[in-house]
Every structure is written in structure tokens, then in C-alpha cells.
Amino acid sequence: MAVKRVTILGATGSVGTSTLDLIEREPDAFEVIALTANCDVEKLAAAAIRTHARRAAVADQRCLPALEAALAGTGIEATGGADAVCEAAAMDADWTMAAIVGCAGLKPVMAALEQGRTVALANKEALVSAGDVMTAASQASGATLLPVDSEHNAIFQCLEPANRTRVRRIILTASGGPFRDWPIERMATISPAQAVAHPNWSMGAKISVDSATMMNKGLELIEAHHLFGVAPAQLEAIVHRQSVIHSMVEYVDGSTLAQLGPPDMRVPIAHALAWPARMATPMAPLDLAAIGRLDFEAADPERFPALALAKSAMEAGGARPAILNAANEVAVAAFLDNRIGFLQIAAIVQDTLEAYDPGAPDSLDAVLDVDAGARRIAADRVAASGHRIAP
Ligand code: NAD
Ligand code: MG
């Protein structure tokens, strides 16, 4: 097999680290072109040196001197700034992992897509914000988007290319997060530490909070809408606490196909990394007898108001998903920083959606304007909430 030249955007995060783990297990199969991070110089430089990367880039320009120092004498190029990350994304990789968190990843993803690259997409916020713009850019350049989010990777595996028009429903499973069984009255007291402790998956802080509010599932419905070109009415989410079935595709004949696997991101990442072939991973085989049972239940709308907000943003389309995402990013950051309570996350998203109604963005710049506008409003709402929680 030819050596695959890979780039990892967000190489120091949870998904980035899992991707590196797979690549480093098969050093002869992969060549690393570029690795990027926000500012975790130590981790980025170590990974670049271990993998003999051609280039390492930090998004935060202030971190460049430290990166240059860490890479001195290695022959690895060090670059810094948001543009440097986009330049790294546009380098000639065969496969690019998009694993930056949030809309901060949008420009780099677009830079790779515009070059017609094969992009493995973990960074759902980029697609949620720029859905139509991103899909159009991929089609224009002939780029390939491979789903890495475990649900979307499952759907991708269950979708029969010849029968795409014969799909009746796509059902995304959700773990329900750490608070699925909490008394609702206690949910106002949820702390950041409790919210990031996910029962099934080990992930970055932002997506862990999104899982706890179930905004993550809402973002994923929008992500599925764009990735698979299915109507909002065909998409459903169901709580499945064991996280063994990662999603399902139901066809018009009544057959439902599911993909199963352990709750470890290396499984969907490996699928995207080897696609259209398969590669071995260190995962233990699924022990279904030990798992014993698979449970399913409807998501409780009272407990998870974020899910309904996301569904209506998906149905309305236009700028709504970008506003939803931007407000959520601001609110989650404020929650993690103890500036607002857990229940205010969805409330701030709702207030921002009600206060702001720009037209549908038709370019990358227009998406970024909507994103910036929504962030300003959400930040005002955070400031006005006057909630100061003892850390
Ligand atoms: P993380 O917080 O662990 O890592 C984020 C990465 O992005 C880091 O490398 C960080 O340096 C980089 N980054 C942060 N801000 C940046 C900026 N402004 N500019 C450039 N780089 C920046 O996040 P994660 O959990 O790995 O998630 C990454 C993405 O993958 C998210 O969109 C998340 O929703 C998605 N995802 C994650 C998982 C998971 O298991 N962690 C599963 C499915 C999807
Ligand atoms: Mg997911």
C-alpha cells in the first residue's frame, strides 16, 4: 500500500491524540505532513518530533517563539497564527483530520476542502455553521468529507451507496450524558467538573458539556443533515445508554442496519484513516455477553431543551444553525469558567436565537459574520446574567 501523507488539525486534543496513536502504530504506512494546535507547544512539538512531521503550526501567534525553540535543530518548520494553520491545512496531504474544536476550525477545514483534499471531519461545529457553504465548496473542488463523529461514521458504514434514496430514517444514538438520571431539580447545581465526567466516552471539555446538555446530539442531527443530504424529518435521536450501537439507518423495506463497536474514537478514526480499506486497531473485541443488554429510551425534552433548539434551527436552516452553534460555544465557555450555571447554557442559546435573525449566509465570510454577531449577543447575555458561581 502506498504511504498515506496525513495532516492533523487539532493534533493535541482528544481526537488528535487518538489519531496520532493509530498513525504511530503503523509508521511505515503514514507520513506526517503537518500537525497543528492552538498553543500546547510541548505536546505539539513532541508529536512533531516523534512522527518526523514536515511542519508544526500554532494558531496562537504568541506561542510561536516557544514552538521555534522546541523544534530548533530538528528540521521541522514552525509557523504561527490563524493563517499559518490554514496554510498547514492547504499543504499536500492525502488525508487531513479536522479535529479543531469549534468554529475556529472552519477556515482551516475550508482551506483543505478548497484544495480538493480528503478531509476526515470530527469538527462538527464547522459543518453546523457553514453547512451549505462547505458542501458547495467540497463539490466544486471534488473534495471528500469522511465522517469521524462516531454516529456519522456508523451511518456512513450502514448507508448503501446504491440505496441512498431508499432510506426512510436515520437514527442517531445518544448516551444521554452524565445527567440522564438526575432529578431535574438538581440540574441547576451541576458543576463543570461533573459535566465533563462523561459516563462512556473520554473527550475534550467542550464536547463533554455538549453531551451533558445534549446540544451535542442536536449539532449531530444538523451534521447528519449536511453530510448525508437527508431531510430534517428523516433524522431522529434516541438515548441508548450503553453506547454500543453508534447509529442506525432504516430503509423503506423495513430493514434497519446498525454499526456496533466499543466507545473509543479510535474505531471511527481508523475507519476514516484506512477508508476505503480497513486497518487493525488495538480494540478488544466487543463482549456482548458481558454487555448483556442494550436499552433505548426517548430523550426527555424537559431535561434537554437544547435538543429542541437544535432541531428547530435545523428545520429553519439559513443562519439559524450558525447562531445556535456560536451562542452555544460562548455559553459553554462561560459555564466552564464558572460564569453561568448549567441551565443557563440552553437559555442563552435560546435568547440569542430570538434576538438575532440575519439572512442566510452564502459565503465563508458571511458565515463568519453571523458567527461573530451571535457571539457578541451571547456574550452580552452572559455578562447580563450576573451569575457569579463560586468556583
Ligand atoms: P479538544 O479540546 O480535546 O482538542 C481541540 C484541539 O483544537 C486541540 O488540539 C487544540 O489545540 C485545538 N484548538 C483549540 N482552539 C483552537 C483555535 N482557536 N485554533 C486552532 N486550534 C485550536 O477537543 P476534542 O474533544 O478532540 O474535539 C475536537 C472536535 O472533534 C470537536 O469539534 C468535537 O466536537 C469533535 N468530536 C470529538 C470527539 C471526542 O471523542 N473527543 C468525538 C466526536 C467528535
Ligand atoms: Mg458523536
TrEMBL record:
Gene Ontology molecular function, alphabetical: 1-deoxy-D-xylulose-5-phosphate reductoisomerase activity; isomerase activity; manganese ion binding; NADPH binding
Known EC number(s)? 1.1.1.267
Residue ranges annotated for the 1-deoxy-D-xylulose 5-phosphate reductoisomerase N-terminal domain, each copy included: 6-131
Residues given in the record as NADPH binding sites:
T12, G13, S14, V15, N123, E125, G204
BP term (GO), one? isopentenyl diphosphate biosynthetic process, methylerythritol 4-phosphate pathway involved in terpenoid biosynthetic process
The UniProt entry, under Pfam families, shows: DXP_redisom_C (PF08436), DXP_reductoisom (PF02670), DXPR_C (PF13288)
Give the function comment from the record.
Catalyzes the NADPH-dependent rearrangement and reduction of 1-deoxy-D-xylulose-5-phosphate (DXP) to 2-C-methyl-D-erythritol 4-phosphate (MEP).
Q: Where is the 1-deoxy-D-xylulose 5-phosphate reductoisomerase C-terminal domain?
A: 145-228
Q: What is the lineage of its organism?
A: Bacteria, Pseudomonadati, Pseudomonadota, Alphaproteobacteria, Sphingomonadales
Q: Which reaction does it catalyse?
A: 2-C-methyl-D-erythritol 4-phosphate + NADP(+) = 1-deoxy-D-xylulose 5-phosphate + NADPH + H(+)
Query: Required co-factor?
Result: Mg(2+); Mn(2+)
At the top level, the lineage of the source is Bacteria
| Enzyme class of the recorded protein, top EC level | oxidoreductase
SUPFAM superfamilies for the chain: 1-deoxy-D-xylulose-5-phosphate reductoisomerase, C-terminal domain, Glyceraldehyde-3-phosphate dehydrogenase-like, C-terminal domain, NAD(P)-binding Rossmann-fold domains
| Record bears the keyword Cell membrane | no
Q: Which UniProt keywords apply?
A: Isomerase, Isoprene biosynthesis, Magnesium, Manganese, Metal-binding, NADP, Oxidoreductase
What positions does the entry give for Mn(2+) binding?
A: D149, E151, E220
Protein family: Belongs to the DXR family.
Kindly tell me the pathway this chain contributes to. Isoprenoid biosynthesis; isopentenyl diphosphate biosynthesis via DXP pathway; isopentenyl diphosphate from 1-deoxy-D-xylulose 5-phosphate: step 1/6
Protein name per its UniProtKB record: 1-deoxy-D-xylulose 5-phosphate reductoisomerase
UniProt keyword annotation of Magnesium present? yes
Binding residues for 1-deoxy-D-xylulose 5-phosphate, per the UniProt record? K124, S150, E151, S175, H198, S211, N216, K217, E220
Residue ranges of domain DXP reductoisomerase C-terminal in the record: 260-376
